[in-house]
Predict the structure.
Amino acid sequence: MKRRRIHIADDSPAQEPMLPLINIVFLLLIFFMIAGSLQKLGPFDVDPPASHTAESQPEDTIVVWFGKEGEVGLGDHTGTLENLSSFLPEDYIGRPVEIRADRSTDGAKVVALLKRLQELGVDKVQLMTAMEAEQE
């Protein structure tokens, strides 16, 4: 039996490997997926009331979530107005508190939350609203 030799021509253009490029694309995709979702979500969903103006909040703001049925949430904790003090951080005095209440929450319940925060010694309170499109 006669052996045949296979000759590979060296004059063909060199092909660049695609694997490193694909790896970089996937790493960038993962990075932007993680970096794009850095907003911390509350313990439950709220639909804030609309507003025509907006201001940015200071970095040390404590965010209190207030639901339709009067449930209160802070971080990963949920409860009622009575045990709100157990949710607040130890250094809450002097820090601003932002209330994110649902737009269908009864106004009397929001006033009760404000009174409870006043009893606890909070003196800076902001009510979070959603930006409303310009009315034409």
Observations:
- The mean pLDDT is 79.
- The two ends are 91 Å apart (CA to CA).
